[in-house]
Write a structure and sequence with these properties.
294 residues; three-stranded antiparallel sheet; 7 helices; 29% strand; elongated
Length: 294
C-alpha cells in the first residue's frame, strides 16, 4: 500500500468500462474501487465531484446557536451521573427543537476556525489539574431549507461572519444583559459570578442571531433552569455563535455506494453521518462490505 501525503486531489472521474480516475497535482491514478472520505471541511470539493459525476445530492441542515458557560455545580447532579446529558426541548412559541450538545464538565470554551470563520466550541480534560470551575455546553437549533434556497451552510456562514464583523471573533454576553436588551461590557462580566474561560468580545447576540433562533434559546434556558436551578442566572455566559456545518447528503445505497459501482462515500463528507463515532463506523462498515464482496 502506498500513501501519498500533501497530494491534493482535484477531480474524480468515472471510466466508461468501470473504474475511476483520480487526478492529483502529481499525476493521474486509476483504480477499480474508490472510497472518498473528506469530512465536513471538504464539503465544497465533494459538491463539485458530485456535480461532475452527476450524482444526486440533497440539502442538509445547519445547527446554529450559542455556547453556555456556568458554574459546574449547577449541572453537577447531571454530569456526575451522565457526563454528557442529551436534552431536547420543543419551544412553545415556534415549536422548534432546541438541544444541548457537546457538554464539557469543568471544561473550557475555545475558538474554532472553519474556513476562516471563527466560531465557538468547548473542551474538557481528564487531568484534574487542567479542570476549571465551569461547565459549558452548546444550545443548538437545526434549520432546514428546501425551495428556492438550499444553501444551509451558506446561511450558517453568513450568521457567523456577522458575529465576526461585530465582535472581531466570538461575542460573549451575560444572560441577564440579553433578556434586558442591553449589550454586555467588560465591567459587568468582570463583576459577574462566572469567570470566562475564553477571551471573547462583550457584545449583543441579539444583533447577530435571528429572532426565532434566539427566542428558542432563551426559552430553553428557562426550561433548563427547572431541572438545573441557576442556569437562568443573570451571570450565565453565552458565547456566539456556535455553528455545526453538515455536508449536503450524497445519494448512496445501503452499502454507502453511489450509482457508480465501486465508488463509496463515507464519513461526514457523505452528509449521512454527523459525528466522529458514526464517521468511523461508516469506514469500518465499508471496509468489511468490500472485503465480503471481493
Amino acid at each position: 500500500m502506498t500513501f501519498f501525503f500533501d497530494t491534493p486531489v482535484s477531480k474524480v472521474g468515472a471510466l466508461p468500462d468501470g473504474g475511476f480516475t483520480v487526478t492529483a497535482k502529481n499525476g493521474e491514478f486509476t483504480c477499480k474501487k474508490c472510497v472518498i472520505s473528506v469530512g465536513r471541511s471538504g464539503s465544497k470539493w465533494m459538491e463539485s465531484v458530485c456535480a461532475g459525476l452527476d450524482i444526486p445530492t440533497k440539502s442538509n441542515r445547519v445547527d446554529i446557536g450559542v455556547r453556555v458557560e456556568l458554574p459546574a455545580v449547577v449541572f453537577s447532579h447531571l454530569t456526575d451521573e451522565l457526563y454528557e446529558s442529551k436534552i431536547v426541548y420543543r419551544t412553545e412559541k415556534f415549536e422548534d427543537n432546541v438541544r444541548t450538545f457537546c457538554m464539557n464538565p469543568r471544561g473550557i470554551v475555545v475558538n474554532e476556525n472553519t474556513n476562516g470563520i471563527v466560531t465557538v466550541n468547548g473542551h474538557s480534560y481528564e487531568d484534574p489539574a487542567m479542570q476549571t470551575e465551569n461547565t459549558n455546553f452548546a444550545l443548538l437549533v437545526a434549520k432546514h431549507f428546501s425551495e428556492p434556497f438550499k444553501d444551509s451552510n451558506g446561511y450558517g456562514e453568513s450568521i457567523a461572519r456577522l458575529s465576526n464583523m461585530l465582535g472581531g471573533g466570538v461575542i460573549v454576553q451575560r444572560f441577564g444583559d440579553l433578556v434586558r436588551g442591553r449589550r454586555s461590557n467588560y465591567k459587568r462580566i468582570e463583576e459577574g459570578l462566572v469567570t470566562p474561560t475564553l477571551q471573547a468580545t462583550p457584545g449583543d447576540l441579539s444583533l447577530v442571531l435571528p429572532k426565532r433562533i434566539l427566542d428558542g434559546i432563551i426559552e430553553m434556558i428557562y426550561a433548563l433552569d427547572r431541572i438545573a436551578p441557576g442556569t437562568a442566572n443573570d451571570d450565565t455566559l453565552l458565547y456566539g455563535v456556535e455553528v455545526k456545518f453538515y455536508n449536503m447528503e450524497v445519494e448512496t445505497d445501503e452499502h454507502l455506494e453511489t450509482k457508480y459501482k465501486g465508488l463509496y462515500i463515507i464519513g461526514d463528507g457523505s452528509g449521512i453521518t454527523h459525528s466522529l463515532s458514526h464517521a468511523s463506523a461508516s469506514g469500518v462498515f465499508v471496509a468489511r462490505d468490500m472485503a465480503e464482496r471481493m
